[in-house]
Design a protein that fits this description.
The protein is of the alpha+beta class. The chain has 7 helices and 8 strands, in the order ααβββαββαβαββαα. An 8-stranded antiparallel beta sheet has the order 1-2-3-5-4-7-8-6. It comes from Vicugna pacos. This is CWF19-like protein 1. Belongs to the CWF19 family.
Length: 310
Amino acid sequence: MKREYTRKYLYAFSIVPMKLMDAAELVKQPPDVTENPYRKSGKEASVGKQIPAPEEESACQYFFDLNEKQGRKRSSIGRDSKSSPHPKQPRKPPQPPGPCWFCLASPEVEKHLVVNIGTHCYLALAKGGLSDDHVLILPIGHYQSVVELSAEVVEEVEKYKATLRRFFKSRGKRCVLFERNFKSHHLQLQVVPVPLSRCTTDDIKDAFITQAQEQQIELLEIPEHSNIKQIAQPGAAYFYVELDTGEKLFHRIKKNFPLQFGREVLASEAILNIPDKSDWRQCQSSKEEEETLARRFRKDFEPFDFTLDD
């Protein structure tokens, strides 16, 4: 009697649970990824057609958005929302639970340092700045971090970032941005200009990585098209730095973190070479001096001020 044997093949998989993977790996794109060829801008989609251009899908988002409303649903106020006698009122910015040094409406704010005010954000000179034009981008409402910002606030933050890059470039400088969401209650996006003659962008990047390694801080490079909201959850402690090229380095704070780390790196010999200014408390100026610096910045920034166009 002849026996027949069936060949069997076994495949081995090495699967890492998502909860054990770093968030930066989850949003990392495979090599040779190209843009979606079917996504068109409104202008391209409407050429030769008398129909409204579709709204462009959000780029660089790799996760399903549970908040997105799918399908068509008739509005309870009728088909044309513009005909409503009660137009939607703008949302009031979140308020702090107590005194806050950075909420613009708060009496604690040192308003003489404010140099520009937008719709959702404002610019202020940094207290004890690394330079005379070291500024902060701050939300007018009470938000603790970039991760918690609403869409309209994020849009204006990005507008300020792009405008400040142009402003500093016209003055022979590149700017470095960083945020430390740790032992802070109101978002402070630090914008520090660095003269082009001092160092290159790669020098700045290397300085952050080197000093992070010396202090056993793991700085991860975030994929180019990712943002902080994809990496960190609201309430999570973190530090990130953004270079003038758009490159970002991110550290998830688990226990302790040197509060002056961002300043220490930028003040180091490799970048600005002003190590005595690594602590803002050692860089105090009188109110009169601060008022003079604020007036000068407002005047210099005015040709770039996009709020004047609104």
